[in-house]
Each structure stands twice: as C-alpha cells, then as structure tokens.
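user: Please supply your own:

assistant:
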Amino acid sequence: MLVPFQLSEAIVGLELTGDYWLALSRWLFDHKFQAVLVNPQLVKKTKKTEIIQVLKVMLKMP
C-alpha cells in the first residue's frame, strides 16, 4: 500500500462514529500501521473551514 506512493510510513486517522474502528484498528496494528482516533466534530469543523477558504479564493478570482 505504501509503495505506489513511495512512502516509508503512514498514520491512519479513524473517526469514532461507530464500532467499525475497533476491528479496523486491530487490522492496522497487525499490519504494522499506526492508527490514531480523531474527534468527528473536529474533523467536521476542519472540513467546513477548508470549504470556506476555497470559496473565498474562488470569489476573489476575476
């Protein structure tokens, strides 16, 4: 998985939105991936901020 992107390591972020992350985090751990749990509210807020920034740039374009 890392080879096509020429990466030496990756960290996978999992949102705590259900029970799926338990099995997935175990699989990632078993396959030597690092996994971190992220707050879904913070992810949503970050996405919203990024969208607003893109819209501001688009509105400034001639």
User: Anything to note?
Assistant: The longest strand covers residues 11-15. The mean pLDDT is 78.
